[in-house]
């Protein structure tokens, strides 16, 4: 712990972090295992009652024929796109310029699968419907990310998704859903996961993001698609002898939290309003559409860090442990509401934001 | 449990399985976590004190600059071969026809990396030195598996490994060690892991095989090689937010068992002699050179299964839970000695083999 910066140390010592479900420590997995009989057998290379019944449950939740558990979404999504490219005989897909595949995967899609990506839309906004309708490139698959994380978790209207889906079906383009945070968009759309997924040919969901599991992902689609996914999972080195630490925690925290996304969404709206009430602070979106949003504070990092460090120590509320300089003299960070938010006493929260406003007013 | 065959059910009910370290159940991971503070933090995408110190410890054990933890050996080895192919500008490697890469990975090496494999030697024996010295193909890398699992865990003499290494260095061919069961060969060679690995440019070891961890692997080599491995690990979808269930169990069981390989080796020799004393039974190798060997029984599966089912119930000793028909009228299976063997009372073991000999004599 001696190597932590004062900023990170102050965040860790704060009694009340505003985001997440609590610390990612051993207790997260111990709590899952403590519920289980010591003699419960491991899965075995993707077989076994535990993994198979969880996959069936997730397939039903997503309204798809079949689902398969993966150690990571990176692996699951590359494989989904590869299968659709092979099926269409076209090595081209389209997605947003800030898609996880484009910015976080070291070009795995190109280097492992020789798949070219067409970037649709702009970095600072959602892909527009007209950009999809007017796209000239011959692609095998369009990937839509709901919510679009890197721009604060924005969402297109449901009617636009319906139009995108109809267009893709008419054109023979496969539609894949990057639903890493799928649960988190359901309260906004007022749809079930299955209703939303019916617009898509394949869907990926994550279990360590909104759900707060240890790691892991589900990929769902029709029977032939999942049969091929299984072969590719082995090729990628993802067909482990034991995946139980991941799928058991996924299952456990899914049951605990999937139904709480409406609450988190409401809390995100409340918290964003508190941020927006402060000098120099804006959120993106201004009114969140999921449990997440981005915060922008118009101060350079070297000025903002000591201010927040002092604020955490004074109020016991921890806002964030890192700052990105998103543009000259502006810092930003992401907030994702989970179980931690409801644990903050209202007066403590109110006081923290009054103090934040006061110190930022002075810093102008 | 109602779907188990009588044979598998009898094996599971037997008090004394001869191989392995005990059942692969929740207790394996619970035992690891129970030793740890609840507040111990997860690793985070390959960073964190726990994973970094374990990697450093394994690099030192293997005598290499650096090591990196992977969720699977399939992923680690494909990546090693890809790096060497890229470095040499040659998309060709050589290995044994029964290498893991050839028979258990759904052609991942070809499908993901477009690497062609040259199969050296024959399926029923080790690669011979002259086959390596006289190889005409221009390859980037030669992979040697120690021990050669699919033929009962056989090993070439150490002097042959030295000659192979010298030849590869002279020819500019990279030499990779598939050391999934590396610990298990050290007693035979009477070498340290570092002494053996010094002959190789890169090495992979597994933690769920001889060591009995939950899953996971280490890849080791020089600094530039490991830096590239890290990028490829992300591309493959192996750079998980949390790998702690795997590397913590790897570390825990490594400490418990790595030093016991000499004992397991001696016990394998003893047990193989017991098998060889029975009618219709031979082991491969006749005298094991590691803690593993294969057993061949000259009876067809439909005759042997009920015989063994009855034997397990009568004696309490479980030999195996599956039978392969390796050739017409001959069954085979693999035995890998771990902690379970020493728990069998000597008279129980002696009685079981006397009964095995008796029932096989009658079955002739």
UniProtKB/TrEMBL annotation, chains A, B:
Q: Which residues form a coiled coil?
A: none
Q: Please give the InterPro entries that the UniProt record associates with this protein.
A: ArAA_b-elim_lyase/Thr_aldolase, PyrdxlP-dep_Trfase, PyrdxlP-dep_Trfase_major, PyrdxlP-dep_Trfase_small
Q: Which GO terms describe its biological process?
A: glycine biosynthetic process; L-threonine catabolic process
Q: Which cofactor does it need?
A: pyridoxal 5'-phosphate
- Domain Aromatic amino acid beta-eliminating lyase/threonine aldolase as annotated: residue spans: 41-295
User: Entry's Gene3D superfamilies?
Assistant: Aspartate Aminotransferase, domain 1 (3.90.1150.10), Type I PLP-dependent aspartate aminotransferase-like (Major domain) (3.40.640.10)
One Gene Ontology cellular component annotation? Answer: cytosol
Lineage, top-rank taxon, reads Bacteria
- What protein family does this chain belong to? Belongs to the threonine aldolase family.
| Designated name of the protein | Threonine aldolase
